């Protein structure tokens, strides 16, 4: 809002207010006499028949009175702003109305022709508004000349946010740059002028604009821009040798207002995961309200964000389970602002312990379970596959058994895109967990479903976390392959859709989140290294065993269907009888890693009906799928 009220107004602002009152008063003098002369065809001899001077003191008094009531003189307004002009129009309209009534009802000689009073109001508005416009224009010119030393910026985006950012860059002392040109892809905005700056084209005109206006900065003034848009604009800016600054998403803006100080360099989330997710989460999450909700793996990246978002929807009790005491410490601190670890809703427990899991479920009788506990690091699990069996398969089965015994009404298993066309121990174990979840959903009361998605920005141990650490250490940054691609989504976006999926999913389904377009990891690495001096090298290390070139969200032969949410699709998951995996420890030695890998692969293939697994899958990536992009 342009008006700032204060009981103590600085002397400089008081003088500005006094100057405006004097200006508006002078405008009324000019307006009254000019309107009367116009009405009398500029015949000065006829003016003496009226008492125009008698209206001037009344006009002054009314102008100050209504100006105070309408806020025109009670605070400080930005010169020539819409809010100030609106307050000025209301004030002059009220003064004109009172003068018109007074002119009609006063006995004796009328001070002025009635029609002249109406015209005087219009002229007073033009005069007072014109003075403000001239002052605003002078300030703009002075501001631009004063800031000649600032970097020159091109603003991309001339929507409401773009216009506010232009104003902020022009008038705030903390402005990091000075706008000199505008770009917008909207054809209807071509040649639009904002604060004397003209839209000279779309993104294709960026290189030309940078040279023509000697600009060194590109400001992306679109808080709703998706990651793909920011990546493309950033690539064009690199070609034009422009530094890039972005307006953060609306969720990061204080009060939804944008200021020059909000500008920052693009983050990984801006480049990869920023996306608009439109969902009525309040309504979708009604199944959590006044329910006992349990989250396994609550100390992890996904689990902790689940806890934070679930807590907003009024569960009767939120039980957070993890075997990592440090993770539980962090999630309690983020939820309660304290971390004394003394809450009965914090449960230190390993899901491998079947007896304790069953005992806990019997005690708390959860209504809703989000199963996020899992081992997820592919190379480590390839080297130690028995750990994937213990946590991702047996651990999931122990949670499913306990949930069925406790009468859970809704069970959401957090899966991964690596379960689609699995070719690693991580993929096998998570695919088997999907099949087990489907089995319980078809044979027990309640709804049991899985949610499948890809890489999550900011999660512990993610590729971007590794990149940041390598860059801080001076490099090199290691990438497995120049062409490897991955899907990315922010933790907040992923969890919103997980909660939504929990509301709309059905038994035996794996709901697959729309992850947007896959991104080349090498491009991300180059972007993150771009502004560092000395230059940080990028080293390609080769794909690791079980690692795909391109991740997939759907397996070959899976028929995907659109759900009730535009960003969620679903597939039917064949159910897997738990007897296939309950006694695996009696069939395969934990020391015989190759046999264990083969057993899980065959179990998945036979029980779930997936494609046969190549015999060399345990030693190397599936090179037979590289050509068609499925690896």
UniProtKB/TrEMBL annotation:
Transmembrane segments: 21-40, 52-73, 85-106, 112-135
Domain (Polysaccharide biosynthesis protein CapD-like) ranges: 293-569
InterPro entries, sorted: NAD(P)-bd_dom_sf, Polysac_CapD-like, Polysaccharide_Synthase-Rel, SAM-dependent_MTases_sf
Keyword Transmembrane helix among UniProt keywords: yes
UniProt keyword terms in alphabetical order: Membrane, Transmembrane, Transmembrane helix
Coiled coil ranges: none
Family: Belongs to the polysaccharide synthase family.
Protein name, UniProt field: Unannotated protein
Biological source species: freshwater metagenome
Upper classification of the organism: unclassified sequences, metagenomes, ecological metagenomes
């Amino acid at each position: 809002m342009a008006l700032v009220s204060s009981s103590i107004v600085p002397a400089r602002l008081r003088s500005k207010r006094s100057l405006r009152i004097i200006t508006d008063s002078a405008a009324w003098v000019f307006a009254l006499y000019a309107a009367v002369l116009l009405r009398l065809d500029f015949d000065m001899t006829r003016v003496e028949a009226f008492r125009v001077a008698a209206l001037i003191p009344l006009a002054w008094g009314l102008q100050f009175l209504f100006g105070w009531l309408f806020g025109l003189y009670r605070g400080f307004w930005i010169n020539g702003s819409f809010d100030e002009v609106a307050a000025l129009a209301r004030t002059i309209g009220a003064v004109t109305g009172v003068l018109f009534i007074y002119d009609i009802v006063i006995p004796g000689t009328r001070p002025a022709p009635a029609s002249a009073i109406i015209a005087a109001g219009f002229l007073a508005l033009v005069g007072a508004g014109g003075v403000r416009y001239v002052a605003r224009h002078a300030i703009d010119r002075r501001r631009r000349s004063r800031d000649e030393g600032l970097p020159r910026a091109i603003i991309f985006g001339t929507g409401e946010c773009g216009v506010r950012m232009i104003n902020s860059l022009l008038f705030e002392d903390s402005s990091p740059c000075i706008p000199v040109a505008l770009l917008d892809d909207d054809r209807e905005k071509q040649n639009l002028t904002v604060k004397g700056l003209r839209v000279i084209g779309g993104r294709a005109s960026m290189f030309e604009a940078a040279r023509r206006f000697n600009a060194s900065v590109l400001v992306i003034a679109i808080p709703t821009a998706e990651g793909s848009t920011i990546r493309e604009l950033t690539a064009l800016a690199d070609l034009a040798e422009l530094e890039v600054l972005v307006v953060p998403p609306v969720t990061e803006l204080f009060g939804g207002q944008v200021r020059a100080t909000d500008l920052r360099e693009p983050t990984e989330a801006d480049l990869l995961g920023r996306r608009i997710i439109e969902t009525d989460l309040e309504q979708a999450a009604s199944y959590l309200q006044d329910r006992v909700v349990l989250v396994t793996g609550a100390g992890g990246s996904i689990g902790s964000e689940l806890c934070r978002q679930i807590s907003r929807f009024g569960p009767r009790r939120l039980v957070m389970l993890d075997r990592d005491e440090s993770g539980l410490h962090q999630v309690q601190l983020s939820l309660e602002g304290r971390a004394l670890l003394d809450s009965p809703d914090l449960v230190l427990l390993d899901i491998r312990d079947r007896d304790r899991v069953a005992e806990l479920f019997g005690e708390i009788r959860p209504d809703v379970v989000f199963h996020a506990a899992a081992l997820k690091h592919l190379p480590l699990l390839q080297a130690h596959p028995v750990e994937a069996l213990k946590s991702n398969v047996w651990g999931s089965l122990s949670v499913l058994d306990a949930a069925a015994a406790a009468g859970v009404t809704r069970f959401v298993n957090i899966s991964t895109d690596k379960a689609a066309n699995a070719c690693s121990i991580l993929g096998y174990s998570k695919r088997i967990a999907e099949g087990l979840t489907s089995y319980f959903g078809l044979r027990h009361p309640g709804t049991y479903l899985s949610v499948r998605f890809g890489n999550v920005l900011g999660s512990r141990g993610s590729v971007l976390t590794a990149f940041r650490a390598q860059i801080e250490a001076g490099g090199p940054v290691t990438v497995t392959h120049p062409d490897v691609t991955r899907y990315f989504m922010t933790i907040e976006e992923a969890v919103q859709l997980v909660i939504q999926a929990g509301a709309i999913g059905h038994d035996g389904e794996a709901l697959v989140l729309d992850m947007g377009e896959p991104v080349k990891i090498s491009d991300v690495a180059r972007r993150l290294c771009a502004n560092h001096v000395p230059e940080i090298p990028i080293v390609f290390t080769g794909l690791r065993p079980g690692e795909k070139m391109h991740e997939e969200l759907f397996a070959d032969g899976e028929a995907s269907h659109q759900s009730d949410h535009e960003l969620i699709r679903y597939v039917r998951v064949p159910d897997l009888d738990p007897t296939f995996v309950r006694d695996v420890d009696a069939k395969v030695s934990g020391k015989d890693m190759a046999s264990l890998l083969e057993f899980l692969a065959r179990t998945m293939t036979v029980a779930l009906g997936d494609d046969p697994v190549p015999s060399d899958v345990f030693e190397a990536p599936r090179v037979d799928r590289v050509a068609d992009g499925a690896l």
